[in-house]
């Protein structure tokens, strides 16, 4: 039995979809905070169990009979380590045979603010003695493509990455890699650096948006602090704005670029290209 936590999230749903291509639905468990949001998964034959990272008492029942568990990292920045530790402890009690975790690209050497909680989680997994595999996901294309409406409307994409490169891939690509690890064998003890096949800069993103939309869109580079304040002005919480501006500043220093081929190796196909992602996002506006 395979348990996927965060199964109603954007990444989790893709993982479930990928698993169901080859794994019988009765062997897949969707771990969710709200069972109501997983009604569609239950209708497909997937077992739905409550998994709340902040409520350890939910985890023992959720992991009962589990052979493999995918911990999709929490989105509650600042609370992640304690939440992840609760999941790890429950997996130890359940004696799972493979524990997979979605970490951050080169987490062990990354200077990004996002890295610290991932590093601590990876350490907790190692200390647990669980047979484990670390999926160090790079940047998501959707981070740049899900909100293109304002960019097209105003003709500008803001950022603080200068000409820094993003080796980004789509959620579907990272989900396919996770599913391949959960279905396959021989992944214990490995850490995969997962990144897109081709890197791009934010000026190149703007050019691609211009091409797909037929409207002139340019990239405007800001300082890290200016970008953070702009994001706050758009309504983002200060903490999230700080993480995004820090990530852009890190990209300017090469933190989000990679030549690793682990992603392509796991999914057996090219990763989603920037052009594909932008075209789809512009069509969906």
TrEMBL record:
Signal peptide: none annotated. This is NADPH:quinone oxidoreductase 2. It comes from the Bacteria. It comes from Granulicella sibirica. InterPro entries: NAD(P)-bd_dom_sf (IPR036291), NmrA-like (IPR008030), NmrA-type_oxidoreductase (IPR052718). Residues 2-244 form the NmrA-like domain.
């Amino acid at each position: 039995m395979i348990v996927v936590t965060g199964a109603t999230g954007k990444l989790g749903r893709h993982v479930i979809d990928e698993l169901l291509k080859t794994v019988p639905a009765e062997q897949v468990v969707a771990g969710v905070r709200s069972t109501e949001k997983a009604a569609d998964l239950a209708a497909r034959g997937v077992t739905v169990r409550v998994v709340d990272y902040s409520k350890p008492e939910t985890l023992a029942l959720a992991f009962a009979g589990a052979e493999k568990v995918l911990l999709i990292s929490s989105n509650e920045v600042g609370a992640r380590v304690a939440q992840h530790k609760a999941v790890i402890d429950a997996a130890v009690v359940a004696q799972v045979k493979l524990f997979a975790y979605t970490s951050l690209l080169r987490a062990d050497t990354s200077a990004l603010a996002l890295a610290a909680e991932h590093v601590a989680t990876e350490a907790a997994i190692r200390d647990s003695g669980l047979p484990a595999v670390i999926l160090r996901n790079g940047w998501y294309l959707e981070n740049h493509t899900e909100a293109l409406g304002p960019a097209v409307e105003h003709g500008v994409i803001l950022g603080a990455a200068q000409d820094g490169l993003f080796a980004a891939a789509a959620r579907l690509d990272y989900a396919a890699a996770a599913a391949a690890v959960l279905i396959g064998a021989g992944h214990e003890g490995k850490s995969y650096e997962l990144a897109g096949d081709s890197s791009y800069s934010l000026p190149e993103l703007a050019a691609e948006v211009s091409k797909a939309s037929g409207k002139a869109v340019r990239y405007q580079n800001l300082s890290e602090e200016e970008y953070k304040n702009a994001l706050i002005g758009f309504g983002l919480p200060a903490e999230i704005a700080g993480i995004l501006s820090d990530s852009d500043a890190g990209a300017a220093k090469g933190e989000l670029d990679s030549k690793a081929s682990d992603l392509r190796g796991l999914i057996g196909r090219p990763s989603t290209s920037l052009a594909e992602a932008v075209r789809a996002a512009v069509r969906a506006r």
